[in-house]
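User: I'm putting together notes for a lab meeting next week and I want to include a structural view of one of the chains we've been expressing. I don't have a solved structure, so I'd like a prediction I can at least talk through. The sequence is below, exactly as it appears in our construct file.
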Amino acid sequence: MSEEVVAKVLSGTELSKETKSNLKKQTDALAEHFNGFKARLVIVQVGGRDDSNVYIRQKIKSAAEVGVEASHVQYPKTITQNELLSEINKYNSDSSVHGIIVQMPLDCIENIDSHLITNAVSPEKDVDGLNIVNEGRVAIGDLTGLIPCTPNGVIQLIKRSGIEISGTRAVVLGRSKIVGAPVASLLLWHNATVTVCHSKTKDIEKEVSKADILVVAIGKPEFVQGSWIKPGAVVIDCGINSLPDSSKKSGYRLVGDVHYSSTSLKASAITPVPGGVGPMTVAMLLSNTVQAATKVANDIFKSQWNLDILPLKLQRPVPSDIEIARSQEPKNIMVLAKEIGLKESEVILYGNKKAKICISTLDRLKNINNGKYIVVTGITPTSFGEGKSTTTVGLVQALAAHSKKNTIACLRQPSQGPTFGIKGGAAGGGYSQVIPMEDFNLHLTGDIHAVTAANNLMAAQIDARIFHEATQKDQALYDRLVPTVNGVRKFSPIQLNRLKKLGINKTDPSTLTAEEITSFSRLNIDPDTISWNRVMDTNDRFLRKITIGQSPTEKNHTRQTCFDISVASEIMAILALAKDASDLKERLSRIVVAQDKNIGNFTSSKDVTADDLGMTGAMAVLLKDAINPTLMQTLEGTPVLVHAGPFANIAHGASSIVADLLASKLVGPDGYVVTEAGFGSDIGMEKFFNIKTRYSGLLPTTIVLVCTVRALRMHGGGAISPNVSITTVEKEEALSKGVANLQKHISNCVKYGVPVVVAINAMKADTENEWKIVRDASLQAGAMDAVVSTHWENGGSGAIKLAETVIKASEQPQEFKFLYDLNMPLQLKIETIAKEMYGAKSVEFNENVLNKLCSYESKGYGKLPVCVAKTALSLSGDPNLKGVPTNFTIPIVDVYVSAGAGFVVTIAGEISKMPGLSTRPSIYDIDLNTETGEIIGLF
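Assistant: Thanks for the context. Below is the predicted structure for the 939-residue chain, given as structure tokens.
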């Protein structure tokens, strides 16, 4: 009698340990290579079956061992199918979740289709491999996706046996969707000849006896006998069954679908039960999770975009802006979104040419290092403008379309006031524009309207609160503020905030004393101190001063007030400076709208805030979509983020921090974000650095300073009107004097320690010698270079040299520094700005301004940055003083705090927050062709 051969035991426990050890190395590498990137798994459970809880604890423990962050989410038995589907969709949309499993069986009261639930899990996150898409991939031999866990574990155990799968005869007992069918497909695609047996198969014993590889998943305890087995076969037992056994403490023993003792004497290798396939199922689950997370990480961190560039059809002479814009058909915005690495779930479409990008995208991209940050500013402009926006667009077209650098332009949304007034649009011009330019310059995605609604809701609440406090006694007022609803009386969350602010540590409305009721109910707003005005997005000079409350129903509660233009609202500045929704809400709560009249003088009075008025949540709701930047494109099909448009005078005049942060992540560390500061370096750039940069944390790598020969000639005393005839000598003499203005702006830039590139925005009347005068003056003043750019005429190809110079400048060592320390007194900050940026000899403060500054410091606003509102048409406070004025004084006539935005505003001279319409505004030229739907006369 020959010696019996005992089969090699294929320990799933041992193999799973090795697998998990390798997975831990992979997750460590992910974290190291991708800035702390973490694989995350969500386990969804319905009900609370004890056996399911055991499995879940095992999965969570194993996940921790391999460096996967696992979360267990448990829903009640009463959950409905639609509710469960909705919850799963939340995790499908959550970019931080890489794997989702739904623990089966569902322990529910409602009738829920388990197949529908498993198919609801996104195929990219279906780490169980049960989604019909992943099953289908396996069936057709696509093994690059997420393979079902138990079948994959089976294959790994077969490989562990040492047998060469290719060319063998494999028999699979069982055809279940979860194990049998996918195992058969996997064996087939590993080049085995596969037979699948099931309950209808005749003479199973004979089929089994032919198998070199036998996989059993039939659900019958000890069904397969050793006598059936081909000598030397590899046997994988996927079954687990309990049989009564009085010798065991538990009263039962676990067995597989194979009779182990007899089979192990004929097989060359066999899996035990337990400790065989089971541990490998969990290991493969985690392997799928790490695979899914790695794919996400690679997608996030891929370096180079593959943009489909739109060729320009250059015409001579250059047509009007709107003709050029209409001659170019934009890409479908979803195509562009995918080109720059956005997911479909992160894009909210507004038609097919513009879309909102969810700020939640920042969570997905948080581990990416920021791109290089380019700030475009300008010299002191003429009334024609010197082309900052056009240069910004031309530069990004050159960087993205011609230099093949990941580049995004971040631009402000223009107000409709100037659009229908005299300034024109802000989408750039010529062959360096954002398209569709009509959308850009009109309603876009409604952000300005949302700001208007939020602002005016606050204004309505202020006057309503004054009225109700004046016409009701304390108890009646309190009863209306905290009413009983369905027999229940309670404070709203925002009312609890007010109680906390007042130092009243109570949550039951019935327990307040009479004194506490009065303190809670009465804001005692002093109407003379109200600083919150109504707004509208239209130039209307007759709203600069109005009287409200004249209806008899307001009982003589009239007061004088005014309208501002919408972009001058503090809410617009807040939208531009908030880093996320929570920051937005917190800033809204801090808005100061007035002082109370309890004390009677400004220095000692208390601030009345948006939170006191109960307005924070309501305004946040109105702005919930507005916080998402809008994606558009240039004429050459490169991406642009358009977001926010704060007034460039009484606010900081720059696009949003959210847009800049998002763009910085999307372009990646080797890419470029080009954004624009309002006005010239003395106002816009100064505010950009000392306000916006402080809050964003994004440090600039290069300053692009835009100038025109035309403007510099004006600063030298020359004429800029094309109708005035002057000689070449006269032009160059004026230019040689006027470059002093450019040199002052270069000096301003250099003070921040950032490389400066001068962009000479070329015009047809310019000469080579004029450009040389400008370049020589630029280099003398400390600019890295001065480059002539013809982007208006030629698009991105006309700014290639500018782009090359910007790339070179951005590689220089960074030594950025702020102009002033936040710990300096407010007065000293103002003086520093005036002297360093404007060249003022001194600053003049009246007594009222000094008192206010003192009060703001006592109230904790002293460490805020300062926003000086002055004319943009001169370095001084007098718009008529051109060039580089000297020996002048800046008068500060008023000051107020924008507590929500986070800066103190000082008014230098005559500043209007509501522009007016001219005698002949652009309104006369704008019309709608009702047959074609085209807008006529818009630039």
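A couple of points you could mention at the meeting. The chain has 32 helices and 38 strands. The chain has a mean pLDDT of 92.

User: Perfect, that's what I needed.
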